[in-house]
What we know:
- The protein is an all-alpha fold and 150 residues long.
- It has 3 domains: 6-59, Arc Repressor Mutant, subunit A; 62-100; 111-150, no CATH class.
- It has helices spanning 6-17, 22-29, 35-47, 49-59, 66-78, 87-100, 115-119, 124-143.
- The model has no long low-confidence stretch (mean pLDDT 77).
Amino acid sequence: MSKLRTKQKLFVQEYVKSNGNGTEAVLRTYDTTDRNVAKSIASENLTKPDVQRELATLLQRKELSLQTFTNKLSDITASEPPKGYSGADIVEAVKTGLKLHGVLTDRKVTTTYNLNADLEKLSTYDLIERHKKLSKETQSIIEGDDTIEL
């Protein structure tokens, strides 16, 4: 028995139809036209266990199963695409299916490094020497000189 509200259930269906685009799914399901609000609602919905279970249940259907997508990917490499579709169209559809199953993810990785924390550990002498070295390197780059003295 699902504890999902009607809009959440519709959200899951629209999420799959919109190729895993939560913002678009919210815009089609909820009473909002603001993309930022839609993005926030989608993010919140996708963290809810009941929504995740509903999505998993939907993706277990034979036509949406992970096995179907991986088989299709194998078929693409061994045959020509059906009439009216390019190979790119089919690969994109398969990629969407794999993304919905969590097999493909965005490869964006953001790393933040606080240089000031390391600089605060240096002595005044080390900071001055570092400043001189970086100033020389910067000046060399500005002047187009390839040789940098270390």
